[in-house]
Amino acid sequence: MPRRVTQYKGRTVELEPITFRTTVEAWNIYQLDDGSTVKIKMAVSDISRIVNEYKEDGSPVYFIEGASVQLIDSPGHLYKGAKNA
User: Fold this and answer.
1) Which candidate among 20, 31, 37, 61 keeps its CA 20 to 30 Å from the CA of 10?
2) Residue 85 — pLDDT band, cuts 50, 70, 90?
3) pLDDT value of residue 23
4) Residue 10's Cα: distance from chain center in Å?
5) C-alpha dihedral over 72, 76, 82, 85, to 10 degrees?
6) Which residues contact 65 (CB under 8 A, 6 or more apart)?
7) Contact criterion met (CB below 8 Å) for 39 and 19
8) 3-state secondary structure at position 46
9) Contacts of 30 (CB under 8 A, 6+ apart)
10) pLDDT, averaged across the chain
């Protein structure tokens, strides 16, 4: 099976898949001035190491794929059609 590739710093590079397990997946929580609460976390779906690519300190470069998961809880008065009290 050929390795996957991606663009990195303007060139095509090979990716080496790395298996992983989730040990902690914490939420960042923000309280908005309008009374809403926003919760957000990163849900990682894939991690790969970029083959033969290293940072200035010699550490490997990783390519991480995922999506942000967002939960928003807003007070009732902000909903469309709500009567302002």
Assistant:
1) 20
2) low
3) 96
4) 22
5) -140
6) 44, 45, 46, 47
7) no
8) strand
9) 37, 38, 39, 40
10) 94
pLDDT score at 2: 65
Hey, what are 70's tokens? 């967002």
Q: Which pair of structure tokens corresponds to residue 84?
A: 């302002």
Backbone angles phi, psi at 58, to 5 degrees: 95, -5
Structure tokens of 31? Answer: 């309280």
User: What percentage of the chain exceeds 70 in pLDDT?
Assistant: 95
**CA distances (Å), 18 to each of 45, 56, 68, 75, 81, in order?**
11, 22, 21, 42, 49
What's the burial of 41, exposed, middle or buried (CB within 10 Å: 0-12/13-18/19+)? middle
Taking only the tens place, the pLDDT of each residue in 50-76 is 999 999 999 999 999 999 999 999 999
Closest of 11, 36, 25 to residue 68, by C-alpha? 25
Q: Which residue has the tokens 């090979």?
A: 14
